[in-house]
Structures are given as structure tokens and as C-alpha cells.
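Table S2 (continued). Query chain:
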Amino acid sequence: MRALVVIGAGASGMAAAISAHDSGVKDILIIERGPEMGGILTQCIHSGFGLHTFHEELTGPEYADRFQKEVLKRGIDVLLNTTVLEIDSHFIRYINSTGIYEEECQAIVLAMGSRERARGALNIPGERPAGIFSAGTAQHLMNLDGCRIGKKVVILGSGDIGLIMARRLTLEGSHVLAVVEIMPYSGGLKRNIVQCLEDFSIPLYLSHTITEIKGKKRVEGVAVSPVDENLQPLPDRSFDIPCDTLLLSVGLLPENELTKKAGAELSSTGGPVVDDSYETSLPGVFAAGNVLHIHDLVDYVSQEAEEAGRNAARYILSGECDEACIPVVPGHGVRYAVPQFISRTGKDALIKFRIAKPMRNAVISLISDGRIIKRMRKKVVSPGEMERVSVQKSLIDSELKLEVAENDET
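Corresponding output:
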């Protein structure tokens, strides 16, 4: 029997394994379906990683390499090119080129990351021509395979990957004609909007969407329409942009097929419901990183996974876990909050959440049974940036509610 199995060797999987090892659990197996450790970081050759973790600016491969060296230094077992087929509490089945295997374990950390939302979820009219890529696929083709994907490019969606690819394509000689965003605000970090679009004079069409893809064999252009307050296209105001390539940057989804199959309770994020130890509704099964909710900074992924690894080690060594009895409720102006439950054990709880819309002079309130126990003010908040707040557990009664409002309208 293994003590701990970690599924995924990206930023969260490596951090969780290292943390569990340093907390006293030495019998650890990491299972990774890819050919190397690092996950999505291996194709993110731009800088901006590691400012919180290492206090210096690194590229994605450099950030992953530092964690990989720590995994190898500790002698943690790693299986690459191996796919997990099924998890069932303390049982795991996986497959690779040598066969199908079963492993019993005391605890599991889910660290499978996320996947991109595909064109099929968008229902855009048109044929199926060449030249349509998800932003992550385009990033892989360019940064790892050395392929040029197009000359005249339109990007649908202003998430961070799409913004970064707008800059990357421009630097490689492509002409990025527009970034089109259906919402009245960008879904990416402010720094990426400035560094990837404004610095290169790339237009951003807010409150617009693509209503048709033109071309049969290869993309020849797209029809762009403004949308109303209900996000419905206004076809009479549509205009065409001739292009040969369309990139889709329309959001990430937690990779949770295994989680659902195992019977874990899922939340509105698409990830599993967890308590403040990052334990799911399945005893001994923990989750962290983008499999839990989509992060904006990889440093926060690593920090979250380190905490999950420590708690998984505590579960293995003590055989106990804290009872999570206090619900965390997203209220006015809050899209979601993680964790969904917190225990009374320990001093503080760290709550991560995203707001529903951009606000200026925002007031973040933490409320327990109608009583404000903490209040924070921020000049600007945006759905593209995850908010974090720590709260003393001793101040919470039977429920913790988060609310965000502008100009102190609570």
C-alpha cells in the first residue's frame, strides 16, 4: 500500500508532493500523463512566474524546473506517460505502455489541472475550416514545436492565455487584428492587458462576439457583432474582419472527470467541494490548484498545493481530519468562494474568491450571522484577479458570508 498518490505533476502536484514529504510522509507516488513534469508550465516561455514564491521573475519552464529538482532531490517516485483511469476512495487504477495497474493508498491529492473550453461549447455558425485553434494549443505549437500558425489572427476571449498569445504572435511576425470579448470587461490580469495589448496597439473589442466563421478549407474571416446588456448579438451592427486564423481563449475548466466518477461533491467552480484543509467530500482525498478552481497566478497554485500536501500528510500520519462544519457562502457581488467549508480547528482561515463584475472603491465584507466581522477596502477589483482574505475562526458563529459592493453600499 502506498502512503500517498498525487495525480498530476504540474505546479500543484509537485508542490503537494514536496510538502507532504517534508511533513513526514516518504512513500509518495506522482502519476503524470505527459512525458515530463511541469504540466502547462513547460510551454509558457514568457516571464512573470515566481514573484511570490521565489521573489524573482522566472519563465514557466524555469519555475517548473525548480520544483522538479526538489522532487528528484527527495527521491519521490514519478510515473510519466501514465494515465489514471479510476479512483475510488483509497484505491487507484492507472495505465501506461507496460500495462494496467492497481494501487491501494492511504490518501490521494488531485492535481490534474484544467482544460480549455472548446469551439463546440460556443455554437458559432460556420464550416470547420483549418486555422481555428484554442489559445493553449497555439501556444504549444509555437513554443514547443516551432510552428507558425497564421499571418492574420483574430482572438476570441480576453483571458490571460489569449492576451499572452496576442503578444507572442506579434513578436513572431503575425498581425493580430483584434481581441474580441463578449463581456464589458477583460477576463485577464490588468498587467497583461497593458503589456500584451496596449503596448502593441492591438485593439480590444469589449461587449462584442464572433457570430460567424467564414471560409471552407481555411479561415477567411470572421463576422463580429456587438452584444446587448443580455449578451445577445446585434446582427444589424455586425462587421467583418478578414483573417486566416482564429484563436479561442474562452475560459478554462477544472479537469474533473476522475473526481466526478469517484463521486466527490462538485461546486460551482467545476471543481470539488473542499474544506480549509483542501479535503474533498471523499475522506482522504484532497485537491488543489486549477483542478479546484482557476487561478490567475501559479504562485498561488503552489501555495495552495503545499497546504493540501501538509494536510494529506497529517491525515496519513494521524488517521484523522478536522470536522468542517462552517459553510462559506458567496453573497452579493461574489461569484464563488473556496473553500466551501471551514473547521473550527486552527486560528485563521484563508478564503479565496472572485467577484462578479469590476468595481471601484470596493468594500469587501465578511459577515457571520448578520454581524460584520471584517471589512476591507480596495480601489479596484476585477473578475480576472482572484481575491484572498484571511479571517479569524474564533469570530465566526455558524456561517461565513462574503459580500462585495461599491461605495460602501452593503
